[in-house]
Amino acid sequence: MKAYKIKNIAGNISLKLEENLIPEPGENEVRIRVAATSLNYRDLIMLDQAIDGSLDDRVPLSDGAGIVDAIGTGVTEWAMGDRVIISYFRDWVSGRFRSAYLNSALGGPDTDGVLAEYIIMPSSALVSVPEHLSLEQAATLPCAAVTAWHGLFVRGGLQANDTLLVQGTGGVALFALQFAVAVGARVIVLSSSDKKLEHAKALGASDLINYQKTPEWQNAVRNATSGEGVTHVLELGGPDTYERSLQSLAPTGHLIQVGVLTGFAPKPDLSIIQPLNADIHGIIVGSTAHLHDLSEFMLSHNLFPIIDSSFAFENANSAIAHLRSGSHFGKVVLRVSS
């Protein structure tokens, strides 16, 4: 089989396609013929960190879907030919998050990812593909969609008539927009691109703010909500946006901290949280149970992921470059097999 490996050659990081033996599943494991993978901003972070050599020969990417191709002993829940989605955290099946689960994040420093023709996964780390989705569409769900679901509903308790502020139009942002609209919440979207804002409007966004034209966008958010602020903020930016996100919150609001698009270690003034009786929720993707629940939600609401572009397996480095350009609207997908 073929698999991509991260290579650091004289300080130049790239993905190299290599030949490997097809793996065999052990007890409680299944082999998956990967049909498609999708890219996340986290994958760019991993590649940037690979400069220190810590990810040499690691198979990258966390998001994938495919077909059950072989079954190990003890597996009863899956059959040959089943269409499955691969969970981001191999070991976080359900329940509360534990620190030990971090090492099982696919495509990270400790665990190989999914950018290969065949992979082995525990049978407990898989979810059935919703019947209305293709394998390419299903491959977009494990990281971005689970993150939005976990933050908005599991931790944030989003309901109809709530108001959500979404930063940007990347993968997590667009899933959050679709989910919120589906339950009857109002969504305000920030972007630097009027064209992307119009796309967001077509998906159901009620208010659009170009943050380059309106740098003090927290004031625009308050104006749009009669001075009250929003019940939920999907905080994707990091240090450059955190203060304004806090200033956009309504009393008893929820700030869902997800992104690091402008860097790490924000140092905001959190004194506003107490008088607002507000909450901050730190979110790092979610469990296999979360993936199952959002898949059922997408089926019941007939929701489809927004895919920007699809690349052939041989063009993985081009797909990475396209994601890094920031020109995409929606998910970037790699087709691994037909």
TrEMBL record:
It holds the Pfam family ADH_N. InterPro entries: ADH-like_C, ADH-like_N, ER, GroES-like_sf, NAD(P)-bd_dom_sf, Zinc_ADH-like. It comes from Providencia burhodogranariea DSM 19968. Residues 11-334 form the Enoyl reductase (ER) domain. GO terms for molecular function: oxidoreductase activity. This is Alcohol dehydrogenase. SUPFAM superfamilies: GroES-like, NAD(P)-binding Rossmann-fold domains.
